[in-house]
Amino acid sequence: MRGRTAIVGIGASTFHKRGTSPDSEFKLTLKAVLAAAEDAGIDPHKIDGFASFNFDRTDPSRMAAALGIDELRFANLFWGGGGGGAAAVANAAAAVIAGLASCVVVYRGIVQGPDGRYGDGRTIGAYGRDAAYLAPYGLMTPIQWYTMRVVRFMHEHGIARDALRAISMASYHHAQANPRAVMHGRPLTEQAYEESRWIVEPHHLFDCCMENDCAAAVIVMSAEAAKDLKQKPAYILGAAQGSEYRNQARVHNAPRYGSASFSSVGPRLFAEAGVTPADVDVAQTYENFTGGVLMSLIEHGFCAPEEANDFFKLENLIAPSGRLPLNTSGGNLAEAYVHGMGHILEGVRQIRGTSTSQVPGASIAFVGSGPMVSPVSDLLLGNGNTL
Amino acid sequence: MTDAAHYLPEGLPAPALAEPELEAPYWEGAREERLLVQRCGACATWQWGPEWICHKCLSSDMRWTEVAPRGRIYSYERVWHPAHPVLKGHTPFLAVLVELPEAGNVRMIGNLLGDPLQDVQIGSEVVADYEHHNDATPPYTLVHWRIAQG
Ligand SMILES: [Zn+2]
């Protein structure tokens, strides 16, 4: 896979507060796709494939009809939740490499109005499957399912809560430079973070992703085709997906419990790309909650667990000068909750040199999707110098 | 524990049996205040939650085995945000993940009874406490945990 495909175009809708989009989910998604085609300089009729994740409600055949594409050759949905953004890009790249399609759009649209909020438990009378052993105990939403993993991890490695605060503050710091960000103009201080309400200890309000109405899309083509397009290609150096041994063993019985699910995926990613964590200039890491980011970056080898209290400091996590600038658009916490697609777009911008919090000379960007869920996925993007 | 003293307020989702043949023995055991988990008849591996086959040797000879209602806290969380309408005004509450050393360290989720603001220590010994929901249709019993005395 290394260097054989590239992200050639990126596009997004306006980012709305949850429940405020004037447009339907389908229309927002169309806007993102058209913006990505415009960005790449591609005639939208020439798109011939679609890939998405998390049971995205936008049907690719309807999209193909609406866009009047010449021929639909590939339509693909990756299982799971927020762990699928990078994997959808990888599936698009695999399709291009295999010759199944030549111009694949990866999209994700979320308008929460008609289908209720992510953050609320559903008020149905009874729950089956794993939820039967969780919901009657009051555990009904992702943060309630996953915080126990974070607590265990922090306990095992003696990591202080300050690490979570630094992750949150880095996102809000970067959002202040990004006019698209929902939290632009709303800086976060240490005091405001500490005084915000608990959601599930040790996660404060500001440790949690937002919920937004928004859509985003990227276009994947062959490295060969990418050369003739408008933008500097963001080459796909590596991609990996999956999770470790029995990660989803029922009712919290995963052998590696204090885990973001990347212990096997991360090493495969770096082996595929032929680079090491030390080569990475900037990281975009999906945050459902900051605890997942902490575990994810450690599992990928960006820092050892015993170094975490020193590594996860605000000055280390911000552009342009930090050791590992993190979520430089503001991410799910402070830019918009595009279910991790925003992280992919921002990884591409860093490779192009066009981020609002640009890391000077960034040539390799890491994008991680979906800590603590399964499957999870990763991408490494690089500029032309990395091939 | 009696019906009048449930740890969380009435109106939360009840457990449903998505695969009754697989899952009923655990819930029937809880009604009788017996803690049951699966153990493989072929290789003696303990397993929780219920599954059709043994993850280790892949035998389908899974046997429900009564285990000592004792464990220790493997992880926990204090929940403040009411994710369900009936929890409004009833937070914080504590949830624990309890490992059962006498059953191959399988882990179970429950609530930790007592003061929701208590200091919780990973590793603390706990004992099971059965909370009967006799008025529910059908009735069911939840297994909770409390800190072991002495
Ligand atoms: Zn067995």
UniProtKB/TrEMBL annotation, chain A:
<feature type="domain" description="Thiolase C-terminal">
    <location>
        <begin position="248"/>
        <end position="373"/>
    </location>
</feature>
<dbReference type="Pfam" id="PF22691">
    <property type="entry name" value="Thiolase_C_1"/>
</dbReference>
<protein>
    <submittedName>
        <fullName>Acetyl-CoA acetyltransferase-like protein</fullName>
    </submittedName>
</protein>
<dbReference type="InterPro" id="IPR002155">
    <property type="entry name" value="Thiolase"/>
</dbReference>
<dbReference type="InterPro" id="IPR055140">
    <property type="entry name" value="Thiolase_C_2"/>
</dbReference>
<dbReference type="GO" id="GO:0003988">
    <property type="term" value="F:acetyl-CoA C-acyltransferase activity"/>
</dbReference>
<dbReference type="InterPro" id="IPR016039">
    <property type="entry name" value="Thiolase-like"/>
</dbReference>
From TrEMBL, chain B:
<dbReference type="InterPro" id="IPR022002">
    <property type="entry name" value="ChsH2_Znr"/>
</dbReference>
<dbReference type="Pfam" id="PF01796">
    <property type="entry name" value="OB_ChsH2_C"/>
</dbReference>
<protein>
    <submittedName>
        <fullName>Nucleic-acid-binding protein containing a Zn-ribbon-like protein</fullName>
    </submittedName>
</protein>
<feature type="domain" description="ChsH2 C-terminal OB-fold">
    <location>
        <begin position="64"/>
        <end position="128"/>
    </location>
</feature>
<feature type="domain" description="ChsH2 rubredoxin-like zinc ribbon">
    <location>
        <begin position="27"/>
        <end position="62"/>
    </location>
</feature>
<dbReference type="InterPro" id="IPR052513">
    <property type="entry name" value="Thioester_dehydratase-like"/>
</dbReference>
<dbReference type="Pfam" id="PF12172">
    <property type="entry name" value="zf-ChsH2"/>
</dbReference>
<dbReference type="InterPro" id="IPR012340">
    <property type="entry name" value="NA-bd_OB-fold"/>
</dbReference>
<dbReference type="InterPro" id="IPR002878">
    <property type="entry name" value="ChsH2_C"/>
</dbReference>
